């Protein structure tokens, strides 16, 4: 248990060893499942629980803190990494009520089989006094599920926004002490979890402007004691602005697509464009997702396999489409041996991108002079498009 402010403590779990979230998302620096204990003069509240894999840590922390009775468990989010230990905590503290919004209540009943009579539901803006500690509940939907909301501790000016502003980062530091490291982890988290909900994020950021916030205590990663650092980062990531960058995920079987990618990368660099190239059979998809946060353009490189795209390229296209980045332009480069519909199939996988498709460049076998000329033209077109946007230095 670690103190954030008087009678406000962190009682969650740090997982230094976990390396994959949802069997999908790489966690190069582990994560934490943050749970907070607030002691008022009359009542005690626990804010969120932890992933079931770490329930014993939370139970042990509550025991060490001498918590014999819990009055409220605030459940900000129904996803299991925060609510999965709820039933265990309720059985240990049978008098506790789960405080949440009506949508989250329904989800907790359906997903975790929590009994209906365990709940108190709260409306947007409602407050709950613990005695000298007033909890104000603020609906922040779609960060990143429909039911998400935050608690604002009025006296201490601390916002507890659950996943919003979080970072998959295991650290023994309670507070952010290395902003560069936290920026990387928070951006990775934003890219993988929050990016598809950019519009709602902007609405939620505007809603929070009315609050005086001295700390942000999310459900993953360290506590922000300089909240503008993470709020400004979110404003930038969720803005409409794109950067003079091309993301180039590719895979190559016999070297033809690799040669094209190398040529295009050089051509873009010569034009002053930043290129972020990712070899897809070995890629960290978190890095790819992070690159998509800012880039104006994505170009996917793929050979043709069984008349379609290489499965690694199809995976990258599927992921990019699901993450809905603000990318303005897209294209495809690649190769084939005897025929196929690689371009058509990849293009059809990108309907969410709302990007203008630039003329693909496809070669039969190893790229020849005319193919390299076509890649030069593609680089010219990307440069011209970026210039139109006013993002070329
Ligand atoms: Fe950290 Fe959406 O759960």
Structural class of the helix and strand makeup?
alpha/beta
Count of β-strands: 23
Determine the fraction of residues in helical runs and give it as a percent range.
25-40%
Q: Approximately how much beta-strand content do the residues carry?
A: 25-35%
Key descriptive features of the protein:
7-stranded mixed β-sheet; Metallo-beta-lactamase, Chain A; 393 residues; alpha/beta
Task: Outline the structure in words.
This protein is of the alpha/beta class. It folds into two domains: 237 residues, Ribonuclease Z/Hydroxyacylglutathione hydrolase-like (Metallo-beta-lactamase, Chain A, 4-Layer Sandwich), CATH 3.60.15; 141 residues, Flavodoxin domain (Rossmann fold, 3-Layer(aba) Sandwich). It is 35% helix and 25% strand. It is built from twelve helices and 23 strands. A seven-stranded mixed β-sheet has the order 1-2-7-8-9-10-11. Strands 17, 18, 19, 20, 21, 22 and 23 form a seven-stranded mixed β-sheet that branches. A hairpin with a 2-residue loop joins strand 1 and strand 2. Helix 6 runs antiparallel to helix 7 and helix 8 crosses helix 12. The model has no long low-confidence stretch (mean pLDDT 97). The structure holds MU-OXO-diiron (FEO). The site of MU-OXO-diiron has 8 residues, from helix 2.
